[in-house]
Amino acid sequence: MSSESEPAVSFEGVAKSFGARRVLECLDLSVARGEILAVIGPSGTGKSVTLRLASGQLFPTAGTIRLLGEDLSALTADALSRLRRRVGFLFQGGALLGWKTLAENVALPLVERDRLPPADIEARVRAALAEVGLADAGDLYPAEVSGGMVKRAAFARAIIEDPEVLFFDEPTSGLDPVMSRTVDGLIARIGRNRHAACLVVTHDLAGALRYVDRIAFLKGGRFLQVASPRELLAHPHPEVRAFLEAQSLEPTP
Amino acid sequence: MTVLHEPVDGAVRAFFAAIGRTARLVGAALAGFPAVLTRRDCRHTFARQLFIVGIGTLAVATVVALFTGMILSLQLGIAFRQLSLEGMVSTTMSYAMLREMGPFMTGIILAACVGSAMAAQLGTMTVNDEIAALEMMSVDPVRFLVVPRLWAMTLMAPILSFYTCILAFLGGALVGYTQLNIPFLQFIQGVLDAAEMKDLYVGLLKAAVFGILVSGISCSVGFATTQGAAGVGASTRRAVIYSFLAILIGGYFITRCFYVL
Asked: Are B218 and B242 in contact (CB under 8 A)?
């Protein structure tokens, strides 16, 4: 069991290769409980791989990843499955099941895993959907709603069991600026209210600067800079500076 | 030399890894039968799959069975007429349909109509991260998706096989009556006289095994899908090809087990 002071997620010398292709090299990182950390970087640098390693969907070639105090590489399949009950994951496309309504999708972990009484499930689903602003959309199917609503429903599904750690894979990709801001606001509000550790992978540096506690800039399989938004803007690594300028964000003098 | 051998080694290794993966999947799905009885969602999917496998393929099975019976009867009639053995048409059809053709046709219809759709659906779910999402929610994708599909096909395949046999006999009797001058009821009586319970049981067993093979292969190939829409297309094609091969190879070995020279 993990203690409160222990990081919720930690990487120690983590490397990941796919065959001969080395994607990540010697990553060190930790995310504390209640902290929101964004992993930012150009396309193809291994941001999503980092997230999948942190959540135990992939395993490192070298190094150790701890999730809520557990070494992921040392866990059995059953133990990993149990650990995942304390974790929420928002996939890039939402990953909702097309033949179920939004409410049924949100209820899925409760129905399939916990087998709670129907009344309890309905109440919790209604509360989760209301929390993401979808109180009236529960009966709709994913194909009948916008991408933003799919993302928010997937968000509701990720938080339905009050997870201690939340992972977000490009939560604002494909969304308009208003919806992006709404989703960013949800991450900030829910992450803080529930004191959950949040690891967010995103391209949207401008959005992330508004609500994250720290930013880790990933390029060439390494973190070039891990800093608070203020620090990052004040003293950006040259590569980070180029990224900031490309997103029309000026480093602060 | 190493460079030349590497792709071959890789392909052989991948082939055996795929067989191992499919065998594990089938084992887990067969063992997961209680979920069909106890889990509401699993029960719903099972009922839906029963409908897809049974009712959904009925039209195709009807046409295929009827015309196969008619072709078989015509060809046998032409051959046996030269020997003045027209009466053997129904006997031969009984053996052929119950032992081999009924389950074989059922397997092929299931692979083409249902297995391909299973592979495409699970493949799309895989590339859309829906399978990963289930795993992240600690929902077992095998229990949730494979168990109802595999059991529905396994239970429905023998019924469909029996139905195709009946339709083929009717098609055969029709050709016998119209073109071979064999009375309709005499043809059917000839089929019944030749039919042995063992032929029926082995045929139904064979159909059930084909159901397991087709659904297991299709689900396994679907789960192994990569590379987006193109990957889904490739998985669908692979599922049909592997299912056809498994039906042929499996069919031979089941026959070899029950019928010896």
From this structure: no
**What's the pLDDT band for A252 if we cut at 50, 70, 90?**
low
| CB-based contact A249:A209 (threshold 8 Å) | yes
Q: Reply yes or no on whether the pLDDT at B1 is more than 50.
A: no
What pLDDT digit, counting tens, does each position of B123-142 carry? Answer: 999 999 999 999 999 889 99
Beta-carbon contacts of residue B4 (< 8 Å; ≥ 6 apart) = none
Q: Do B128 and A97 touch (CB under 8 A)?
A: no
| B33 class by beta-carbon count within 10 Å (0-12 exposed, 13-18 middle, 19+ buried) | middle
Which of A24-28, A242-246, B109-113 is predicted with the least confidence, judged by mean pLDDT? A242-246
Provide CATH 3.40.50.300 ranges for chain A. 1-86+166-253
Give residue B4's Cα distance to chain centre.
Answer: 38
Nearest to A112 among B125, B132, B144 (CB): B144
Contact B133 A85 (CB under 8 A): no
Phi (first) and psi of residue A87, to 5 degrees: -130, 145
pLDDT at A55 over 70: yes
Whether the CB of B6 is below 8 Å from some CB of chain A: the reply is: no
Does the pLDDT at position B222 exceed 50?
yes
- CATH node for A1-86+166-253: 3.40.50.300
- The minimum CA-CA distance between B57 and chain A, rounded to whole Å, is 21
CB pair distance less than 8 Å for A109 and B130? no
The CA–CA distances, whole Å, from A116 to A78, A121, A123, A157 equal 21, 6, 11, 15
User: What are the chain A neighbours of B125 within 8 Å (beta carbons)?
Assistant: 97
- 3-class secondary structure, A34: coil
The Cβ of residue B87 has, within 10 Å, a number of other Cβ atoms equal to 14
Q: Residue A171: is its pLDDT beyond 90?
A: no
Q: Suggest the residue from A112, A125, A199 to mutate for an interface test with chain B (most B CBs closer than 10 A).
A: A112
